[in-house]
Write a structure and sequence with these properties.
Elements lengths: L20 H8 L3 E5 L2 E4 L1 H20 L3 E2 L5 E3 L1 H6 L1 H4 L5 E4 L5 E4 L4 H11 L8 E10 L14 E11 L2 H21 L4 E5 L9 E8 L5 E6 L18 H8 L3 E3 L15 E16 L9 E3 L5 E3 L1 E8 H11 L1 E2 L2 E2 L10 E5 L5 H16 L4 E4 L5 H11 L3 E5 L1 H5 L2 E6 L5 E5 H9 L1
Parallel strand pairs: 3-7, 19-20, 19-21
Antiparallel strand pairs: 1-2, 4-6, 5-6, 7-8, 8-16, 9-10, 10-13, 11-12, 11-13, 13-16, 14-15, 17-18, 21-22, 22-23
The chain binds 5'-O-(N-(L-cysteinyl)-sulfamoyl)adenosine.
């Protein structure tokens, strides 16, 4: 992509309304713009990151055996009357009346709707286990939307719903999502710790929040430093017994302030780490909480009818953009992990008026693009200093700078955004390194 043809409205000044670094950088780097409190438009660069995160989440859901569907954002109130949550959900639910006076709502979550789909179609234990997920916008009329996309009112969530015949099978489905979450957050370049959690309005008694550590996180967290030694990139194949993996990850103490109790915490004080964290995922097992009132049942092997055992599993996809920036930035801007970066390489033409320099840049751009390397090519008239500052701000993993002085010696400069390391390479070597 040529920057001269792109829409990247970056800001030099720090926007006054943004209290935390990720919100400031998302505005400054031209990723989002606010429409109303807690409601954002995604500009081209931000949307690319959001889509990259979504893809990784999707790959790991599919790998874990979940099936993608897409449910609507607008729901009818009737199913929520059935589950009993229509009144319970209170003011966080955005209620809408259609032209016929029917009560509708903008979905804050989809337990009711998916349970309805399931009960209409699935009648036998033979069709289980089943896990259905979608990646769809939600609306919660948060009392205090803040920190940009971190606590929005409209936000993108991946929500999965599992259906099983027995509580034991239901826990296996829970374990599959638990492990998929470990892998997902690791692939996103994050260190997320699963912590025992309150279940709130979703319900149930088994639940974990996946928390990314960041000073600006909304919850205070307490955990055993033993988590440092665990590798979340667990390799799983069909039939792998997941229980030992989950046991390993849940045997160490980790709790948010909601349930942490200093008196009953057994971790040696030298081993207990205290910090702040951002909740990027939340998984629940709630048995028949919805299947019973909504009468979602299947026929078991001996002919009797049983309410299915359910779990639900959320990932805050849009929140993750902010969470990744909180975890990956420095004083000059964002430092994207390569897996989610909007472009891999920023190509800087340091002297656009120099024909040789422009010809070399055009050629590098063509070669890298032909090799499927995503390049954002700064072919604008801006000065070299401004170009470097802008590239640092938007945080692409590699910067390839081309200037007349280097070209005289046949070299260009490749900088790694994260380490800051620079090296001079021939043009061929630079292309080889970036396409390797
Ligand atoms: N139905 C269940 C799981 S599918 C559910 O709704 N869980 S949740 O309420 O915990 O939300 C799932 C994830 O969505 C959270 O872990 C969080 O990462 C994200 N999320 C929740 N509220 C917001 C919000 N206001 N802004 C941005 N992300 C949010």
């Amino acid at each position: 992509m040529r920057l001269s043809r792109y829409f990247l409205p970056t800001l030099k000044e720090t926007p006054a309304e943004a209290q935390i670094v990720s919100h400031r950088l998302m505005l400054r780097a031209g990723l989002i713009r606010q429409g109303a409190a807690g409601i954002y438009s995604w500009l081209p660069l931000g949307l690319k990151v959001l889509k990259n995160i979504e893809s990784i989440v999707r790959e790991e859901q599919n790998k874990a055996g979940a099936l993608e569907v897409l449910m609507p954002t607008i729901q009818s109130s009737e199913l929520w009357q059935e589950s009993g949550r229509y009144d319970d959900y209170g003011k966080e639910m955005l209620r809408i009346e259609d032209r016929h006076g029917r009560q509708m709502l903008y979905g804050p979550t989809n337990e009711e709707m998916i349970t309805d789909i399931f009960r209409r179609e699935v009648k036998s234990y033979k069709d289980l286990p089943m896990n259905l997920y979608h990646i769809q916008w939600k609306f919660r009329d948060e009392i205090r939307p803040r920190f940009g996309v971190m606590r929005g009112r409209e936000f993108l969530m991946k929500d999965a719903y599992s259906f099983d015949m027995t509580p034991e099978a239901g826990k296996q489905s829970y374990n599959a999502m638990f492990v998929a979450y470990l892998r997902t957050f690791a692939r996103l370049g994050l260190k997320a710790i699963p912590m025992r959690a309150d279940t709130g309005p979703i319900g149930g008694d088994l639940s974990h929040e996946f928390i990314v550590l960041a000073d600006t996180g909304e919850s205070e967290v307490f955990f055993d430093k033993a988590f440092d030694g665990l590798d979340p990139m667990v390799d799983v194949a069909d039939g792998t017994d997941l229980q030992p993996i989950v046991d390993e990850w849940t045997s160490h103490y980790a709790a948010t302030d909601e349930i942490h109790d200093a008196a009953s915490c057994t971790v040696d004080s030298n081993d207990l780490v205290t910090g702040r964290g951002i909740e990027v995922g939340h998984i629940f097992f709630f048995g028949d909480k919805y299947s019973k009132p909504m009468n979602a049942s299947v026929q078991g092997p001996d002919g009797d009818t049983v309410n299915v055992q359910m779990g639900s599993y959320g990932v805050g996809v849009s929140r993750l953009v902010g969470a990744i920036i909180e975890a990956c930035h420095d004083e000059n801007g964002i430092v994207w992990p390569e897996s989610v970066a909007p472009y891999k390489v920023g190509l800087l033409n340091l002297r656009k008026k120099d024909d040789e320099c422009t010809a070399a840049c055009d050629k590098l751009y063509a070669q890298l693009t032909a090799a499927s390397v995503e390049v954002l090519y700064d072919d604008t008239d801006a000065g070299a200093g401004a170009k470097f500052a802008n590239m640092d701000l938007i945080g692409l993993p590699w910067q390839l700078a081309v200037g007349p002085r280097g070209l005289k010696n046949g070299v260009v400069e490749l900088k790694n955004r994260k380490s800051g390391e620079r090296e001079e390479l021939s043009l061929e070597a630079a292309v080889a390194k970036l396409t390797a």
